[in-house]
Amino acid sequence: MFQKQSALFLYAVSPVHMGAGQAVGVIDNPIQRERHTGHPCFAGSGIKGAVRHGFEAIGGDKKLIERLFGPGPDPAERDGKDLHAGAVSFGDAQLVALPVRSLKGGYVYATCPQALSRAQRLLGLIGIHTSWPALAVDDEHCLLANPALLSSGGKLHLEAFEYAAQVSQDLPKVAEDIAARALPDGLAYDFFRDKLKTDLVVLSDTAFGYFAEHAMLVEPHVRIDENTGTAKDGGLFYTENLPPESLLIAPLLASQTRTDKKDDRDDASGVMAKMKNVIDGKLLQIGGDATTGRGLVLARIVEGK
Question: Is the pTM of the predicted complex or chain greater than 0.85?
């Protein structure tokens, strides 16, 4: 049983390819998606594996890896030590906001009542109180806080779509709270924190679902023949990526360590403190295509009770 809970915000700063392992339609390498919503997601097991793999690179102590994540499955690498469970667990990351190209302002952070409610529920379950008011929006309409995003006629244009806009007095409270929790302080993040505060747009669940399916970054690649150095016949394939500036949230859980050494144990608070000390505000690499600069996400931990 885990005794400490936190929220882990993951903000994409590059395209992220967390692969699903099976082709869908014309996409040869699709990203992971939730079955019931179709929204892009990151499997918790993949996040944990990536954090474990890069733990030393982001400043973690190598001696803590087995205590926090559990020993590796290879007996030779365990050096005769017994297996035991790790002390941290990552849940699946859910989509909170998605960048969508806008006629005004470059892009907006699109979200929907469903995504906000799920994020608020997750925060509440791990003991983080939020006072987000319930927001409702009809199809072909949107709620926003920044009238500067509107074209003449009071319409919001996203990609090829037009939405009747209503300026919401409640939305700035939600956007400001998310921006403060999800992005760290510092000049490097001021632009994005301020933009998230002002340019968060609430679409209907249906409209957001469309962008969550069709506004991904799809890149063509060509397999190269290692003998000739030229493109292989039939070697064209397409890879799907979550676009940069996407925001997701996942639960991070901690228990006391379970090593077989009594003098080498931490309680749940100590485990969570070590995790926060290492990964909070750090750049993680998750998913595939790391050598092409994919998978860079900024991690932010918000502690619960």
Answer: yes
